[in-house]
Amino acid sequence: MYPLKPYRKQFSLLLFVGAFLMSACQKKEIAASSSGKEKSQEITCACETADALPDIPGERVYVKDAAGNVKLSFLKKNNVYVSGDMIFNQGQFDYLTKYFRHPLKESNPLSMHPSPLAMQKAALIKSQGSPNGRAPRKDSSIFSRTGIARIGYLWPNRTVYYTINGSLPAQARVSMAITHWQNQTNIIFVPRTNQANYIEFVWDPLVCASPIGMQGGRQPIYLADGCGVGQVIHEIGHAIGFFHEQSRSDRDNFVTINFNNIQEDRVNNYQTYTQTGDPGFELRTFDFNSVMLYSSGDFAKVPGTAVMLRLDGSWIVGQRDGLSTGDVETYNYMYNPSITAVVKYTKTRDDYDWNTGSSAVEGHSTIYFYTDNTRSTPLALTHPLKLTVQDLDTKNFVYWTIPAGVSSFNLGETWEYQVYDYGNLTYYSAGGGWVYPGVGYHYFWEQL
Hints:
- It is a single chain.
- With 448 residues, the chain is of the alpha/beta class.
- It folds into 2 domains: 28-50 and 151-335, 3-Layer(aba) Sandwich (Collagenase (Catalytic Domain)), CATH 3.40.390; 108-149 and 337-447, no CATH class.
- The chain has helices spanning 90-101, 116-123, 172-184, 229-240, 325-335; strands at 28-32, 38-42, 59-64, 70-77, 80-83, 86-88, 105-107, 159-164, 188-191, 198-203, 218-223, 255-257, 308-310, 340-352, 359-370, 385-391, 397-402, 408-421, 424-431, 433-436, 442-447.
- Strands 19-18-15-14-21 form a 5-stranded mixed sheet, with no helix packed on it. The protein has a 4-stranded antiparallel sheet with strand order 3-4-5-6, covered by helices on one side.
- Strand 16 and strand 17 (397-402) form a beta hairpin.
- Helix 3 packs across helix 4 (229-240).
- 40% of the residues are buried.
- One of its GO terms (biological process) is proteolysis.
- Its cofactor is Zn(2+).
- One of its GO terms (molecular function) is zinc ion binding.
- Keywords: Hydrolase, Metal-binding, Metalloprotease, Protease, Signal, Zinc.
């Protein structure tokens, strides 16, 4: 019977993160001198100029939305899908195809309250079966579709298990990058013994790349010979759940992108996480010092020209020296959330017909925010918070944005109406939404 206590399987919407995108290392390490002039140091990694699997012919395939519009472009080579230096397996490609037909949406929590018509239907539930001849819903299970909820897990207990493949040259760069992450954050890297989920640092002739977030099982971080410590820091960032900084949904408020100057198979690298179908969100303002940010000329069709510029037209320097203050803040938001969110649910109706199995259940929820898990000190949000929510009508996962400045928020009503006729479900309706665990908050649920 519905509403049910929220499903407890842990998942997260990754901050600057998505589940499947693979990221390139930078061809140049660029740093700003004290005089403000830029200097660049060439390295031998051809990550931004070479395709993965270059000697294998490919078939051009596209990911389209429900209207038939092309959203992503790939070369299918053998059993993988290649977009520049990004490599997707069949499952990841299938996910993207399904996502663009049923995209993750952001909605207003108050827009999901039951309508007067829904309430009228509830009044008819016992006596008239399916109102207005509405066809019965065949699948009444809220958990029948997992979809977006399976994307990009954070590493449990802030612990990443790893191995270094024996054929990888210059293994000290991995150790130095790991040391940097451990010095700047409280993440722990532990050499793997028999753990099921782990990273393996492996050699690749061309690319420096990583999947985003914990994928489950073995997941490689590919390192070409010329990819230095800074690039390894960058790729580890992806592996623990970071997007590129230019993938923020609000990036157009800070930079301009010349899509006409991007190499065809690199366009995906400049799309926002909402454009690529990945769940994510951003903190505060754009971080031009982030180790996850590209330089202006990366992936340009014409070498030496800009793909991405600041709004004032100035060049962007994508540093690979180490984590910025903003990068550390992003990490802490994901792995050390300071917000405790408690959803308190009150059931206001619970009718059940033991003869037919028909039922009508209604309730409402309010979310409260606290400074810690003791829930003793209320917390007023200092910035908007995106909650991961399942729409009970469509069964899709959506974002609900809670505004800054509040310590509690009315999430509205939830309802489920079922009519059975001799064991056959003849009418089903559900609405409202359940909050799920997500990034940026500790989650608890209570029924009052």
